[in-house]
Amino acid sequence: MTTSAPAVPAPTGSKPAGRSGPPRGAKAVKMLPLAPAIGLMLVFLAGPILYCVYAAFTNMALTGTGAANVKFIGLDNFRKAFGSHAFTNSIWLTLVFTLISAIIGQNTLGLGLALLMRRSTKIVRSFVGTAVIGAWVLPEVVAAYLLSAFFNTDGTLNVILHRVGLPGQDWLYAAPIIAVSIANIWRGTAFSMLVYSAALSEVPKEIEESAEMDGASGLKRLIFVTLPMISRAIMTNLMLITLQTLSVFGLIFAMTRGGPGTKSQTLPLYMYEQAFSFSQIGYGTAIALVMLAIGAVFSLIYLRGLNAEAA
């Protein structure tokens, strides 16, 4: 005769097998407060993006056949773009503008000003901060007209050059992409300065003092001690100002309108011209997607740098 083992009572508070976590109904209830925000994002963020992707593959236009009869044309807009000298020229000018005004100009000058304000007196910090941030908070159009007057034939820059015996010229005509790059540096450096000022405030002074006691000069302390400790802030700042600069439109439009000719016509201006001056909405939207792809490439590069620093 066999005897069965006595049943072992289940532990108190045990859950049925196969189920873990709160029930689905409870999760859905917790998500209800987020529903309006998710709905607004879908309507006002995802919706326009999806519509732009659709428009880029059509002959959509403000006037003519593309306005009356929108048709799917596949990759024709992209083939047209990459076969156009004006488009490739605008890509080149966009990269030059971004390199000069953001990666070199704003980044380097912002770091220099942050270092200056860190070691200077309160009066100097107040003066520099007010001057730099004042240029940043100016409306873009106002800043553009101020810099146009500065670079004009009879502007301040030529007056200074004549005083020291150097020839002047119309900088907006002779070197327009350099002029608008300098204008963007003047207006946007405050952002980099604030980012680096916050990062430098977190660097322990004891480490720099130890390096100084070991005989490291100011330049060596900067290169081998300070910069490595704020490397994440550097990568973050580079990513943000690069994306901001890629989309600059109003400053260049107010200063040169992309001219003379197409010498300062960056991608945002070329896109605007094709979409609204020539009424080719589909083609202009395709150019916008190319801009988005360029920004994504820069973002991936900087994010890989951030991940490498975190590893």
How does the SSE layout of this entry go?
Blueprint: H1 24-31, H2 35-56, H3 65-68, H4 76-82, H5 85-119, H6 122-137, H7 140-151, H8 156-163, H9 171-174, H10 176-200, H11 205-213, H12 218-229, H13 231-246, H14 250-255, H15 267-277, H16 281-310
Structure write-up:
The chain has 16 helices and no strands. It has helices at 24-31, 35-56, 65-68, 76-82, 85-119, 122-137, 140-151, 156-163, 171-174, 176-200, 205-213, 218-229, 231-246, 250-255, 267-277, 281-310. The chain has a single domain, classed as MetI-like fold (Orthogonal Bundle). By secondary structure, it is mostly helical. Helix 2 (35-56) packs across helix 16 and helix 6 (122-137) crosses helix 10 (176-200). The termini are far apart.
Explain briefly what this protein structure is.
The chain is mainly alpha-helical and 311 residues long.
Mean pLDDT, nearest integer?
87
> How would you spell out the order of helices and strands?
HHHHHHHHHHHHHHHH
Calculate the terminal CA-CA distance, rounded to whole Å: 66 Å
The level-1 CATH class: Mainly Alpha
Strand tally is 0
The coarse overall form would be globular
Spatial extent as radius of gyration: 28 Å
Largest sheet data:
none
The number of helical segments is 16
Q: At CATH's second level, what is the architecture?
A: Orthogonal Bundle
CATH superfamily, by name, is MetI-like
List key phrases describing it.
globular; MetI-like fold; mainly alpha
